[in-house]
Amino acid sequence: MSGFGVLLRQRARRDRWQVPLWVVGTALLASSTIVGVSDSYGTEQDRVALLATASANPVIMLFRGLPSGAGEGAFALFLIFPFLAMLAAFMSTFLAVRHTRAEEESGRAELVGATTAGRVVPLLATLVHGFLANLALGVLTALALMASGLPTTGSLVAGLGAGAVGVSYLGVGLLAGQLMRTARGANSLAVWLLLLGYLVAGIGNALGTPSTDLQRITSSWLTWTSPFGWGENSRPFADDAVWPLLLCLVFGLGLAGVSAAVQASRDLGESLVPGRRGSATAGSWAGGPTALVWRLTRGSILGWCLGGLLSGVLATSLAGVLAGAASQLPSVQAILDAITSEGSIAQGAVAIFFLMVGVLASCCAVQTICHARHDESSGTAEAVLSTAVGRVRWLAAHTVVGFAGVVAVVVSAVAGAALGLALSGGDWSLMGDVLVSGAGQVAAASVFLVLTALVFVLAPRLTVALGWTLVLLGTVLGLFGPLFGFPRWLVDLAPISLAPSVGAGGAEVNGLWWLVLVVAAGGVASLSLMRRRELVPAG
What we know:
By secondary structure, this protein is an all-alpha fold. It contains 23 helices and 4 strands. A two-stranded antiparallel sheet has the order 1-2.
């Protein structure tokens, strides 16, 4: 394979910052989870109570892993394995698209293809590079678990299981790069397939069969259609089964083989899914940069709005489920108290689900700013900036549309909450809590918007990796920090946990003014610094 070694080294050098961020972050998450479980669920009685609650309430299973017993290691992996695998999957899909479809868009793939390397060898180099990145993630995560005092075999199965799921989505990312005409489209397709796989595994576990003691669940057939389900059914620290992980590897390598076949047969720059043709004319409303950004990002914003709508429906329609669980098991009430301010179970459900809405809105904001980076690296931004549109106005357009997307996601969630109350016949006084929580999450998501914009200005090549990493860290700290016993100051670093909420005493401002200050300072700083920044090509 002529040039294979050179291309592999080039990929490793190009990802010398992105891949270590994902790898080290995943290992730190695994290590901190074990510490949190030891502090918060130190006794087997506590772990048994929570597992019984999860097994008896399918909703909880949508957001956790597969129960495999009340041992400390198995319990910790029930809480965190899907998120370790998700980090590996995100790393892999972004890596795959960055070194395939994005290379074609930039024109570099044509130059490499003109050498003796040809067109397939670069894809093989990307496959090996992604496999090694997932191997490093798996090994370092396993070492972090072993350093926490957990058994070696279970630690290896857990770490390599997360890496194996990553290999599956490496194949997904490679195939998405062949299907879609742009890197943005390929990334969007891969991310939605990733989220679908996570949801399918959760639903499959929720439909599974619990054991008589409610400590273990046998997954339904639906779980076995998702790489997340294969990874979870390795059951680290319980069964330590390796064979489900082989399914992940076969699936990922199989998709990579299909991608190589498509790569060899299609024309350079083309895709299996044809690009959408633009209109020959545009209305007067579409004459500025803001309208252009809106037109290019409205599809992805709509997708995040649908997620917000679903979360809003769950926030108000499932309060009864949580109330019933809390009345039977004090541990559930303790969990709600850890995440939310003291108040009713219904208020706690609203607070929890609107934290998720804040995460979705943050993702929408980050993706919009990442669109600016894509346009810059692909060269389309240069055409826009050659007109009367300046750099500051161009970035401001993406920021305005990103903020509009944040508001749209939260408004969709509020509408979903009203729909949930109508369907369940709930207490309409909850809409006041919904409005307060929603407004707070607008401020929280706006923090991620301006921080990603600031990264785009200061370190443009890290925009995608660091922007999504900030959201993932904020999600882990805000949603799971209290459950894992993290210090309050650490949890408060997550904007979604500082957002205003409603407790027993009414609306609580929490860290609203800090959020507003960060948004104002970050917005001004990013726009001011953009004035002097030169365009940075892909690299």
